[in-house]
Write a structure and sequence with these properties.
mainly beta; 3-stranded antiparallel beta sheet; 5% helix; single chain; 2 helices; 5-stranded antiparallel beta sheet
């Protein structure tokens, strides 16, 4: 049995310690069209993800704030979990790549960071036999704090200040 693709019900943005020189306010209303559009398939950003104000300013590999997406309402969770898949659909504007694609539970990053330099607009991380180096149980998966942490950066070979627009973030459990 495999769960249906699930969407988050909670999204927050946060910065890494000591890198932010001025706080940028973040609200769901200002930055997302909605957690679910009419067809129930989108967690869509309304504007570009913001880059952290970094010191020194000469840091050419710009990075976004972290996005933590939690509160997934899974249907048909298997009794024995064998793998996780995360599907992200986004406009990378040609040069936005991953910095952090990692599962989280109880406000802690867990398991492997699946970030890579691939620039595809639709990416699936993990598979039916990939536990992301976690030993999470069914009770952990249904915990409202379970989810995914995302962070993006300008491509290290082609630095720039463009950002990204996310269309969909979904998780499926095998």
């Amino acid at each position: 049995m495999t769960s249906n693709w699930a969407l988050p019900t909670n999204i927050i943005q946060y910065s890494e310690e000591d890198s932010e020189t001025s706080h940028v306010q973040w609200t769901e209303i200002d930055n997302f069209y909605s957690l679910k559009n009419l067809d129930g398939k989108f967690v869509k950003t309304q504007r570009d993800l913001l880059h952290i104000a970094r010191d020194p300013k000469k840091d050419l590999v710009e990075k976004t704030y972290f996005l933590k997406l939690t509160g997934f309402n899974f249907i048909n969770i298997p009794s024995n979990i064998s793998g996780f898949e995360v599907k992200i659909t986004m406009n990378r504007f040609g040069r936005i790549t991953d910095d952090t694609i990692q599962l989280c539970l109880n406000d802690k990053l867990i398991g492997d960071n699946k970030a890579n330099l691939d620039l595809a607009p639709i990416k699936i991380y993990g598979n039916e036999n990939d536990l992301w180096e976690t030993n999470i149980s069914n009770s952990g998966v249904i915990n409202n704090s379970f989810g995914i942490v995302l962070r993006f950066m300008s491509h290290p070979r082609w630095p720039h200040k463009n950002s990204a627009m996310i269309d969909t973030v979904q998780i499926r459990i095998h």
